[in-house]
Write a structure and sequence with these properties.
This protein has 286 residues and is an alpha/beta fold. 28% of the residues lie in helices and 10% in strands. It has helices spanning 13-20, 40-46, 57-60, 77-87, 106-115, 127-133, 162-166, 178-182, 216-222, 239-248, 260-264; strands at 10-11, 27-30, 53-54, 95-98, 121-124, 171-174, 199-200, 230-233, 254-256. The strands form two sheets. The protein has a five-stranded parallel sheet. The protein has a four-stranded parallel sheet with strand order 7-6-8-9, covered by helices on one side. Helix 5 packs across helix 10 (239-248). The longest helix is centred in the first third of the chain and has 11 residues, at 77-87.
């Protein structure tokens, strides 16, 4: 029997609760982060899914920021492996990650661990809000798990660099908000606009009003019209991972451009387009 791709990407609150109560509970990672906010650890300490380990996106899921590499370049693999072992990750254990923003931050650790060779990594669909809405409890304080022994090997998910993004002949998706794509605002990076030829497919559109992923048929409609191989970028390679996860949940493989707009816009030799959003056929311009 073929496994539903969605089941390899997502787990709902009830499924997670059952797994945590089982004989082989998953490693649970809390990635409480949002752009411009620095209190993720404090939020975690105040209340998290029981057994969850806090993961700091800026320091554990990214290398040092620079104009050459972007705001969230991929972390050093040896350091990521050491951190993953400290979180309790082992090759034979399922990993579930969540956040408080619909998985748009937790998708970073989902993508990194998948890229580094782990196959059973999932997102809690709807994140912390879905857990509490289902009536499940939170616990306060810090969790220190038994160390894991995972060995990470890069390359299990595809990536592209700036030169490949510039020459991309398939569908290059810009996962930022449409107003940033159009160049109307740019709150973080040095130039406004988007990579020439990119399509505007904001990450937020992958989610329903309750913060859970859209049903499969809605996601297929959303991504209808993609042509050729698919690659995704955002501001710094974080929320683009959520788009990669959404595509994976309907069986579509997409490459990630880790440097994203934060790297591209720092290079004056790279052109920037502005103006109305070009979209796949399944998405209304916004």
């Amino acid at each position: 029997m073929t496994r539903d791709p969605r089941d390899t990407v997502l787990v709902d609150a009830e499924g997670l609760a059952a797994a945590l109560a089982g004989d082989e509970p998953p490693v649970l990672l809390d990635v409480r982060w949002a752009l411009g906010q620095t209190d993720g650890h404090e939020q975690y300490l105040a209340g998290h899914v029981p057994g969850a380990v806090f993961v700091d996106l800026d320091t554990e899921l990214a290398g040092p920021a620079s104009p050459q590499d972007g705001r969230h370049p991929l972390p050093d693999l040896a350091r990521l492996e050491a951190d993953a072992r400290r979180w309790g990750v082992s090759a034979e254990r399922t990993v579930v990650a969540y956040d408080a923003v619909g998985g748009t931050s937790a998708a970073r650790v989902w993508w990194l661990l998948r890229w580094a060779g782990l196959t059973d990594v999932r997102l809690l669909d709807g994140g912390l809000a879905a857990w509490t809405a289902a009536g499940f409890p939170l616990e306060a304080g810090s969790v220190t798990p038994e160390p894991g022994d995972v060995v990470l090997v890069p390359g299990s998910l595809p990536t592209i660099d700036a030169d490949e993004a510039a020459a991309w002949t398939g569908s290059l998706l810009d996962a930022r908000a449409a107003e940033r794509y159009r160049g109307e605002v740019e709150p973080v990076d040095p130039r406004a606009g988007h990579i020439p030829g990119a399509l505007s497919v904001p990450t937020a559109g992958n989610l329903g009003a309750d913060g859970t992923f859209l049903p499969d048929e809605r996601l297929r409609e959303r991504f209808a019209g993609l042509v050729g191989p698919v690659a995704v970028y955002c501001g710094s390679g974080v929320t683009a991972a959520h788009e990669v996860a959404a595509l994976a949940s309907i069986g579509v493989e997409a490459a990630l451009y880790p440097g994203s707009w934060s790297q591209w816009s720092n290079d004056p030799a790279r052109p920037a387009e502005t103006g109305e959003a070009a979209t796949p056929s399944g998405i209304a311009a916004s």
